[in-house]
């Protein structure tokens, strides 16, 4: 019998986690987080991280594995995810990948280009240059050494600018020349379902969820992280939606009302990008917009497939 891992994908606030728990109540499931923010310890409220009691009931993996001042890549996540799924298979359980980091999903199913690992020293050099001259100037430097990459990457996209320039500094080659090489095959099959809620409903959920995060103490959470770790605004952890806006609020750039406005707008933009990614994946079962109906259909599909896999 083919070894199959299941993936439940969707934009932020689409109800993925709640649906995954319904599946876990009916099947011997272990959940593998497919979320780039859940890897960070201490970032709980702003990531809607499942609590310890819930994680004790249903095994969750790839959560709380690094500190917010550490780096983590899609390549490392792919390695960790493959190892975790293999362990779940060995326990005769059903692996269910759940999340909205579409780069991670693409990395898993399509593999990754043969790019060098992140280098803290080189990244620090680039960050220093950006602090002194600004990211547009760093983008101009990238255009000098790798014009093709600079043409693809916008001057206001520091994460991609940094990565492309880092690859050049480490290899002396443009990032495009290292992309598209042969990739190792995935040792199991992945079947994915995409939740695609109607936009107005999704926007309503996004607002409601962020308001709840504020009530739960998101601002205090970020204050505590700033006190505990050596963080700065350019770190991937603090560029996460919600955390970035709270950071700017704490720096005095705007008040609490503007914080909410900017965070909700940024989350909507994130959801829009996630939906664009989802529509680009040809291997997913796409559910038409319909809110709760989507969740019911997804639950039915996952249960039917899972029972077959579990031999029930």
Give a structural overview:
The protein is of the alpha/beta class. It has two domains: 4-113 and 189-310, Rossmann fold; 120-178, Histone, subunit A (Orthogonal Bundle). The protein has helices at 16-24, 52-57, 74-90, 102-110, 120-133, 135-145, 147-152, 158-171, 199-216, 218-228, 243-250, 256-280, 292-310; strands at residues 4-9, 29-33, 60-61, 94-99, 189-194, 284-286. A six-stranded parallel sheet has the order 3-2-4-1-5-6, with helices on both faces. α2 links the parallel β2 and β3 (60-61). α5 (120-133) packs across α6 (135-145), α5 packs across α8 and α9 (199-216) packs across α12 (256-280). The mean pLDDT is 88.
Key words describing this protein structure:
alpha/beta; Rossmann fold; Histone, subunit A; 2 domains
Topology:
Layout lengths: L3 E6 L6 H9 L4 E5 L18 H6 L2 E2 L12 H17 L3 E6 L2 H9 L9 H14 L1 H11 L1 H6 L5 H14 L17 E6 L4 H18 L1 H11 L14 H8 L5 H25 L3 E3 L5 H19 L2
Parallel strand pairs: 1-4, 1-5, 2-3, 2-4, 5-6
**What is the global morphology?**
globular
Please work out how many helical segments DSSP would assign: 13
The order of strands across the largest sheet is 3-2-4-1-5-6
Task: Return the average pLDDT rounded to an integer.
Answer: 88
Structural class: alpha/beta
Summary?
The chain is an alpha/beta fold and about 300 residues long. It has helices at about 15-25, 50-55, 75-90, 100-110, 120-135, 135-145, 145-150, 160-170, 200-215, 220-230, 245-250, 255-280, 290-310, and strands at about 5-10, 30-35, 60, 95-100, 190-195, 285.
């Amino acid at each position: 019998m083919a070894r199959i891992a299941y993936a439940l994908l969707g934009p932020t606030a689409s109800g993925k986690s709640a649906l995954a728990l319904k599946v876990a109540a009916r099947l011997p499931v272990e959940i593998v987080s497919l979320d780039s923010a859940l890897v960070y310890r201490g970032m709980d409220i702003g990531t809607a991280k499942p609590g310890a009691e819930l994680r004790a009931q249903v095994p969750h993996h790839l959560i709380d594995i690094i500190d917010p001042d550490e780096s983590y890549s899609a390549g490392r996540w792919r390695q960790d995810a493959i190892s975790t799924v293999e362990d779940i298979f060995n326990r005769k359980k059903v692996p269910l990948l759940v999340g909205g980091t579409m780069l991670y999903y693409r990395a898993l199913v399509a593999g990754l280009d043969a790019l060098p690992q992140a280098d803290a020293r080189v990244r620090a050099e680039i960050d220093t240059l950006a602090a002194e001259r600004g990211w547009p100037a760093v983008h101009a430097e990238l255009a000098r050494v790798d014009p093709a990459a600079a043409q693809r990457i916008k001057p206001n996209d520091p994460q991609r600018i940094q990565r492309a320039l880092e690859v050049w500094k480490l290899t002396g080659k443009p990032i495009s020349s290292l992309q598209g090489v042969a990739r190792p095959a995935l040792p199991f099959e992945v079947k994915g379902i995409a939740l695609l809620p109607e936009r107005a409903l999704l926007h309503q959920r996004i607002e409601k969820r962020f308001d709840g995060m504020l009530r739960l103490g998101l601002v205090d959470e970020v204050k505590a992280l700033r006190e505990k770790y050596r963080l700065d605004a350019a770190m991937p952890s603090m560029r996460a939606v919600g955390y970035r806006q709270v950071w700017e609020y704490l720096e005095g750039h705007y008040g609490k009302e503007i914080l909410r406005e900017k965070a909700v707008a940024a989350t909507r933009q994130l959801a829009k990008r996630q939906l664009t990614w989802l529509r680009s994946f040809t291997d997913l079962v796409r559910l038409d917009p319909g809110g709760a109906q989507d969740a019911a259909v997804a639950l039915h599909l996952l249960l039917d497939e899972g029972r077959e896999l579990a031999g029930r």
